[in-house]
Amino acid sequence: MSLPQAFTAANRSRVASLYRRSLKLSLDWVVDHGHWRRYAMLIREDFEANKNVTDPRRLALILEEVEAKLKEYRHPDPYIPPTAPNGTKWERNMPPLYGEQGPVKH
Hints:
One of its GO terms (cellular component) is mitochondrial inner membrane. Pfam families: Complex1_LYR. The protein has 3 helices and 2 strands. The protein is mainly α. It has one domain. A two-stranded antiparallel sheet has the order 1-2. A hairpin with a 2-residue loop joins strand 1 and strand 2. Helix 1 runs antiparallel to helix 2 and helix 1 runs parallel beside helix 3. The protein starts with 8 loop residues before the first helix and ends with a strand. The mean pLDDT is 84.
């Protein structure tokens, strides 16, 4: 089995995906952006600390650890913006349904 190369486009894409997922996951736990910014900076610091890893084995290990952390810290009831699908305001003010003969009368 071949080990992943350290600086490939696939690895850059995977690291960027892990970074975005980490930020989104932290927003599930801290909804207030003022407090969340501190956590975002800590996440950025963790990713920056491993920026210069060139050993493919160590890189694979680090990526596996991040994936495991994301699974461990997954929120049981994630935050959903109100107007997003399944949010509290989703489809709240739907336009009336029209049948073949005009508006439906109840």
